[in-house]
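Trying the structure run again after the queue cleared.
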Amino acid sequence: MSRGYSTLDRRQLLRIFGALTAAGVTGSLAAACGADSEDGPRLSGLTIRVGLVVPSSGPYARIGADIERGFRLFLSSNNNRLGPHNVDLRMVDEGETAESALQAVTTLANQGVVAIAGVANPDALPMIALEMQNRQLPLVNPHAAPGTLTNALFVWRVGAVLGDAGRALADYAIRQGTRAYIMWDTTSSGAAEAELFRISFVDLGGTVINDPNALTSAADYRTPGLDNLQARLAEAENLNADTIFAAFSGEEAQQVLEAYRAARLSIPLLGTPSLTETIDLAALGTELPERVYTSMYYAPDLNNDANRRFITEYHRTHGTQPSGYAMAAYDSAAVLDRALSLVPGDPTGAEVNRALSQLGEIESPRGTWTFNINRSPQQKWYLRRLGYDGMVPSNLLDSDLLVVG
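Done. C-alpha cells:
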C-alpha cells in the first residue's frame, strides 16, 4: 500500500548519502541508537516479550501501518534487541473501536509482555490507561493522546497531545492576519485540534470569523464534516479570512485538498499533520495545491545526523519517505531500548515504567526532546509546506514554530 510518498527523489538521496559520508557515518542506523559495541552493555541472554497494537482496518489503518513500520525498523536495525535483551514481539490487531483496542491490550498483557507500544485511536486511551495502571505495564503511544490523560502514570506519549498541532499553528496564523476560518471533521481528534486552534488564536488577539460569537450568519458552516465544502471555502473568501484552518484526515483530507485547489484561493490553508500524512500525496496528481501548510513535530528533511540515518534506513527498507507517525514509532522503540538498559536482570513492567521516567533528553530524528511531568513530549513543532522535492510530493520544512509540552 502506498504510504503517502511514492519514493525519494534522486537528488534528495544524493544529499542524504553525501551528508552521511561527510559525517563519517558508515555503520547501520542501530549503531547510533543503542546497538551494542565493544564498550556497550553485555547481552543478558534473556528474551523478553514486548507488545505492539496497531489497527489493520478502519480510519486509523494508514497510521497503524506506519507505526508498525517504524517500530519494526528500530528492532531490525538493533539486531532485534531492546536494551540487553532479545525481543519476542507480539502484535495484536487494534481493530476499529476503542473497545477492540482495549481487548488487544488485555490480550497482550495476558501473554506476559513487559511493555506495549502502539494504539492509533486516541479515543481508546482513557480506558487503556486504567488497564495499564491495573496491570503495572507501560504503554508507549506513538500517535496522539487526549489532553485529559495528565494522571495516566503508565501511558507515555511519544507522538503528541491532541490540540498541540492547532496550538502551534495559531501562533503562525496570527502572523498572517487576525481573521481565521476553521473547518474540522467529525472525529474527536479533529474537534480537539480545531478547538485548541480557536482558543489559542483568540488568546493571541485573533478572530475566528465562523465562530458563533463572531458571526451569526455563518450557522451553516460551523458544523463538522464535509457538507457544503465548496460553499465553506467561498464563505471564507467572502468574509475576508486571512487563513483557513482544516483538521481532516484520510479520504476527507484528500477531498479538502482537492476542493481547495479547485477554488484557487489565495488564502493559505493551514492543517494538522493528518491533512497531508494520511493520504497518498501522489493521488493529488501532477498539480499540488499551493499555499498548504501543516504543523508537525517532524519533517523528513530536518537537518540532523539522526534524521539522515533514519531516512536512509527507512528508504532502504521501504522505498519511501517516513511519515511523522513512523518516526514516532521508531522513537517509541528507542525509548524502550534506553529504559530497558537501565533495568538490571529480568525486567518487570513496573521497573520499565520507572526507568522511562529517568531518560532525560532524547536525541531523535525530530531533534532533542524530553518527557514532561505528564509523560507527554516537550518538543519543537515545525511548519511544513506541501510541495515537490524534485519530482516527489513532500512536506517540506518551512520554519520552526513553538516548543510545546
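The first helix runs from residue 10 to 23. Worth checking whether this holds up in the mutant runs.
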